[in-house]
Amino acid sequence: MFNMFKSLWLYRYFVLSSIRNELVSRFARSKLGGLWMIIQPLSQVLIYALILSNILAAKLPGIDNKYAYAIYLMAGLLAWNLFSEIISRSLTLFIEQGNIMKKMSFPRITLPTIVVGSCGLNNILLFISMMGIFLLLGHQFSFVTFWLIPLTFIVIMLALGIGLILGIMNVFIRDIGQAIPIILQIWFWFTPIVYPESIIPESYRHLLALNPMYHITNAYHQVLVYNQMPDINGLISVFFIACVLVLVSLFLFRRASAEMVDVL
Length: 264
What we know:
The protein has 264 residues and is mostly helical. It has 12 helices and no strands. The chain has one domain.
């Protein structure tokens, strides 16, 4: 495991240049450039806000803003988009990079690192744009916002652990690549992002605790929407789960790396 991280450090410039090249190539010959990274999620917010804001705005207590629902929605999507993007890209990572893995000798661990770096950069740009929109809507912030740094780290660890395990399994069982997008879509709607948890019947609300993304999106809402400290107890359990998943994924990655090249 130590050798894996050592090789990653030795190839750090390769990782950084790959992230930069990916960003540049993605928007080559594009007039709007990096704006496309934020147009899609913001258009999603606009659609949901126009359709559901009048229905749900009255059910968001504690927010003295007529755009309360849009603010609530953007905060939750900021967490979910990072989570789902890392998983989705990790899912097909080794299949897409199969030729490179066969022809070039380099630490394979750099591949998921590049994905995390690229997705993290996208999330930072999305966050900056959302902060600008929040200010335009008259929403205020406090020093509690700095909680987003550890929260983002937890999201990345959880998504990387899940995504890396699924990406390895997808090399050997391609049905996984077809099933996971459907599961992510179901998972999204079972997480209070588009709707507040208050609309869920009280008798079923306790089941939310079983969803790790509930604790994360709830923390994002507390920090960005209500300017409150997040619930530490729920986040500790998610952080522990994320650490276990990352360790398991790295173990599987180390064991299956050579076999994946043969299969690909």
